[in-house]
Amino acid sequence: EKYGSSAPAIIKDNPYTLAKEIRGIGFIQADKIAQSIGIELDNPFRLASGLVYCVDQQALDGHTCIPRDYLLQKACELMQIQVEAANTGLERALADGSITSVPYCGQEFIYSRIILENEELLSEHICLTIKLDKEQTLKKTTLDFINDDLNKEQQEAVSHAFNYRLSIITGGPG
C-alpha cells in the first residue's frame, strides 16, 4: 500500500527496503524474497541490510553495541559470506547512517544509530541529575522498616532511592 503501483519495481531493485520500511518483514523474509528473484549473495543492499539486522538482533538480546570483529563473524554466519563481503556491507551501512562506529579502548564498537543517540541522551541526563544533586542536595530521610523482609543491602537501596535523585540498579532480575 505504501508504494502503490511502484512496489514491484522497488522490490525488484532492493527487496531489503521491505525489512526497513514495513513492520513485520525483517531481514530473513526480505532475504528469501530477494533470493527468489535472483538477487546475488554479494549484493550491496543485502550485505548492508544483513549487518544492520545483526546489530538489531544484538540489541534485542540487551546489547547496546557490538564489537566490529564479532559483528563481522555474526554477519558471515547469517549470510554465509566471507569477511571481505561482510566488511563491504558494514561500510555501506555505516555510509548510509543506519549504524554508527565508535572507537573505545582500542576497539571499534558498532551501534544502531538510534540506540547510540538514546545512550548519549541518557548520559547527558545522568550528568545533569548528578550536577543538580550536588547543587541542591535533598533533605536526608531516615526510614524505619517495620518488618524484616528486606536484607541490609535492600534496605540501603530503598533508603538511597529516597535520599538521592538518581539510582542505578544493575544485575540480573530477581
Provide structural commentary.
- The protein is mostly helical.
- The protein has 8 helices and 3 strands, in the order H-H-H-H-E-H-H-E-E-H-H.
- The chain has helices at 7-13, 17-21, 27-36, 44-60, 68-79, 83-96, 113-135, 152-163, and strands at residues 65-67, 99-104, 107-112.
- The protein has a 3-stranded antiparallel β-sheet with strand order 1-3-2.
- A hairpin with a 2-residue loop joins strand 2 (99-104) and strand 3 (107-112).
- Helix 4 (44-60) crosses helix 6 (83-96) and helix 5 (68-79) crosses helix 6.
- The radius of gyration is 23 Å and the shape is elongated.
Structure described in brief:
This protein has 174 residues and is mainly alpha-helical.
Percent range for β-strand residues: 5-15%
Radius of gyration: 23 Å
Count of DSSP-assigned helices: 8
Residues in helices, as a percent range: 55-70%
Order of helices and strands: HHHHEHHEEHH
Strand order of the largest sheet: 1-3-2
Shape: elongated
Quickly give the structural class.
mainly alpha
State the total count of DSSP E strands: 3
